[in-house]
Here is the input.
Amino acid sequence: MIENELSKTIIGTCIEIHRELGPGLLESVYEEVLFSELDEKGLHVQRQVSVPLLYKDIYFDTAYRLDLLVNNRVIIEIKAVESLAPVHYSQLLTYLKLSNKKLGLLINFNVKLLKEGIHRVVNKL
Here is the structure.
């Protein structure tokens, strides 16, 4: 599956989860449920993926952690906040650049309608 096909499946799954659970839960709950649902759909999903970083001569084993990585192509950053800040978008774009991925989904489950909480962030897509 290419990024856009994966994104359609991921977003549809997030909408199903949000309809069932609604807003107000911890990010970790949405992460666990989304992981499980995508795994059941036959996608390869990894949780809390540690990504190393080399800056000049300094090596970091874990520079950052991806909430979810789907089919080694799409990064999902899950939030459950009152409102997204510009830094949330910047953070995901940095993750995309450093991991050489093209598409990230920033999903804030703490909204009345989930379509208001879904944001695509692209890196050379």
